[in-house]
Amino acid sequence: MSNAVSALNGKVAPGEVTISDAGLRGMITLRGDLSDSKLKSVCTGLTGVDFPMPGHANCVGEKGLCWMSPDEMLILVPYAEVDAASELIANNLKKKHHLAENVSDARALILVEGDYARDVIAKLAPVDLHPDTFQPGRFRRTHLGQVAAAFWMRDADTIEVICFRSVADYTFNLLATSAKAGAVGHF
Amino acid sequence: MLILHCPYCGVDADETDLHAGGQAHLKREGPGSSDDAFEDYLFMRENPKGVHFERWRHVYGCGKWFHAARCTATLEVFGTYSAQTLEPPQDIKDKISGTRPGWSWGIFK
């Protein structure tokens, strides 16, 4: 068995807002009928969180559910548990039309932590990040600079960013540069 | 900057989050159609200065295709609606009639 490492391999850019590699995370893309009760119970059973509303993510620790589109859910679990989770989904949804794929190694997860974490993202994405609009629990798929990314707020000072593994370096440098340039002070 | 409301994920998406898909409500002319009808289907498009109906894809977001009604001259957006339809919904037509009385576009008015 090869030794799996994350794309950024623990990279950290310290500062008032710290950008850091969150390491490996198990991620499963699940497509299907999100109103199906069986599918919902499999998702919540695996992660121990409530099924999220559209545009929201419920995450606790390394586990969570992120609403990706009207027929797609992203399931987050610890990296070591992802194979077991895939198997459990396959067994439980055998009779339901669905698609589940382990995408853990296709993604990178980056943490943006600090006072003006909100500003760091707001400079890069066409998203209204005003505290009245974007609060912990909200989830948004969009782009950061030139690459596709998704993010949500873990708490008021922490934002978790997901991007493709192939652009992890670009995304990390983009966030680090934005953080280094300081707060905008608009919010 | 054009901002369209995605009817599938409910996000107000900026133009850079979207991909333009050209004219909406094209009727496909397949095998058995006349050459003229097929030519129209392939090449002839509305090119209005004013009310226009387009297809857009929320490409960086939920990935769904949807329809938008807007004005090409003022960039006013009348509304967006599901792609699972053959014609613009009545409330969108009414809204256009409110500011552009007597408008017409292709077979719709």
Keywords:
heterodimer, A: alpha+beta, Gyrase A, domain 2, six-stranded antiparallel sheet, five-stranded antiparallel sheet, globular, B: 109 residues, alpha+beta, Folate-binding fold, four-stranded antiparallel sheet, two-stranded antiparallel sheet, 2 helices
**Largest β-sheet summary of chain A:** 6 strands, antiparallel
Helix content of chain A: 10-25%
**From the helix content, strand content and strand pairing of chain B, which structural class follows?**
alpha+beta
* Unreliably modeled segments of chain B: none
How are the strands of the biggest sheet of chain A laid out side by side?
1-2-8-11-10-9
CATH architecture of chain B: 2-Layer Sandwich
- Which CATH class of chain A? Alpha Beta
Query: Which bin fits the share of residues in helices of chain B?
Result: 10-25%
Number of beta strands of chain A? 11
Structural class call of chain A reads alpha+beta
Mean of the pLDDT scores of chain B?
Answer: 94
What's the CATH topology name of chain B?
Answer: Folate-binding fold
CATH superfamily of chain A: Probable tRNA modification gtpase trme, domain 1
Structure description:
The complex is a heterodimer of chains A (187) and B (109). In chain A, 22% of the residues lie in helices and 34% in strands. Chain A has 4 helices and 11 strands, in the order E-E-E-H-E-E-E-H-E-E-H-E-E-E-H. Chain A has helices spanning 37-47, 82-92, 117-122, 168-180; strands spanning 12-13, 17-21, 26-31, 57-60, 63-69, 72-77, 99-102, 107-114, 139-144, 147-155, 158-164. In chain A, a hairpin with a 2-residue loop joins strand 10 and strand 11. In chain A, helix 1 packs antiparallel against helix 2. With 109 residues, chain B is an alpha+beta fold. Chain B has one domain (3-99): Folate-binding superfamily (Folate-binding fold), CATH 3.30.2270. Chain B has helices spanning 35-43, 90-99, and strands at 3-5, 12-14, 19-23, 51-57, 65-71, 77-82. Chain B has a 4-stranded antiparallel sheet, with helices on one face. Chain B has a two-stranded antiparallel ribbon with strand order 1-2. The longest helix of chain B has 10 residues, at 90-99. Classes of the chains: A alpha+beta (187), B alpha+beta (109). The A-B interface holds A 54-55, 68-70, 72, 126, 128, 140-143, 148 and B 8-14, 16-17, 60-64.
